[in-house]
Design goal:
By secondary structure, the chain is α/β, with parallel strands linked by helices. It is 61% helix and 10% strand. The protein has 2 domains: 2-160, Ferritin; 169-286, 3-Layer(aba) Sandwich (Rossmann fold). The protein has helices at residues 2-25, 31-59, 71-90, 95-106, 110-121, 132-147, 153-160, 177-187, 199-208, 225-235, 252-260, 272-286, and strands spanning 67-68, 169-173, 193-196, 211-217, 243-247, 264-267, 270-271. Strand 5, helix 11 and strand 6 (264-267) form a beta-alpha-beta unit. It is globular and about 65 Å long.
């Protein structure tokens, strides 16, 4: 968790500096200047949120992250920001490039991971309960501004017209809200996602809806992930090929069962891109 928070601190600081420098490039009163100046102030607040998160983590050292940062995720956030930074330093300010890069970075996994940290810490640091809306307002500010810029309509249309990676639904089952919200938010960028908090709820959902992929935690109250799988298997013998288990406590007996059943599983903490890739592969294999 510390590494993720420290990375976010660096990103918020970098973004704040870039947006502040960008605001200085444009004329006083120009709408783009007002917009990026607002973003700079937002990032300053987000930077402080993450500084507070680091202090909270130091007071609660047992809090561990269930995800890992991978280089692809890091690059998806940092590369667009660095494009803006280069444009400023070279004096080659292309507003289209600026807006595209800004949108690409802000709509990457950056804010999803930020919210994951906040949600993971808020039970130990109650003041974090009010931070979530700040991120939502931040993203709404960007979307609202771009929707009213004629030069942004072309690339916004590209994002809006992208076909989903899959058409069928994915089910995410986990009793830990921060992971449930993070995984479902990330996967919803690729297709339709439903969620459940335990195996019983998941079983009810699968009785009404077919899911191309089922991502499930193992240790959950009311009904565990394995009991959910076993019950579903009674009616759908081949359901195992659609499952991905994620767990932070894979003992030898559980590992042996998963291996014997030829089930996909990932130990927590896991890389976000690895999970998305595994989902894509299952859908590809099952639709051949």
């Amino acid at each position: 968790m510390q590494r993720i928070i420290e990375w976010l601190i660096g990103i918020e600081a970098l973004a704040g500096e870039i947006y502040a420098d960008l605001a200085a490039v444009f004329s006083e009163g120009e709408s783009l200047r007002v917009f990026v100046d607002r973003l700079a102030r937002d990032e300053s607040r987000h930077y402080q949120f993450m500084r507070d998160a680091l202090a909270c983590l130091r007071d609660n050292p047992d809090l561990a992250s269930e995800i890992l940062l991978d280089q692809q995720t890091i690059d998806s956030v940092e590369t667009p920001l660095k494009r803006i930074e280069t444009a400023i330093s070279t004096g080659k300010i292309d507003q289209q490039l600026i807006l595209e890069s800004l949108y690409a970075s802000e709509h990457s996994e950056w804010n999803d991971i930020f919210l994951y940290v906040i949600n993971a810490l808020k039970d130990n640091c109650p003041s974090f309960n009010v931070i979530g809306p700040s991120i939502q307002n931040h993203l709404r500010t960007i979307t609202d501004f771009l929707e009213n810029r004629p030069e942004a309509k072309t690339f916004l249309a590209k994002f809006e017209n992208l076909s989903p990676v899959w058409e069928e639904k994915v089910l995410v089952v986990d009793d830990y809200p921060p992971i449930l919200e993070l995984v479902s938010s990330l996967l919803s960028k690729d297709g339709a996602v439903d969620t459940a908090r335990n195996g019983k709820d998941a079983l009810e959902k699968t009785s009404r809806q077919y899911y191309a992929v089922i991502i499930s935690d193992i240790d959950m109250p009311i009904m565990s992930g394995l009991d959910f799988y076993k019950k579903l298997k009674q009616d759908h013998g081949d359901v195992g090929r659609r499952f991905i288990f994620i767990s932070g406590s894979l003992n030898q007996e559980t590992r042996a069962y998963l291996k014997n059943e030829n089930l996909n599983y990932m130990a927590k903490p896991f890389h976000l891109r690895s999970l998305r890739q595994a989902v894509h592969e299952i859908i590809d294999q099952n639709t051949l």
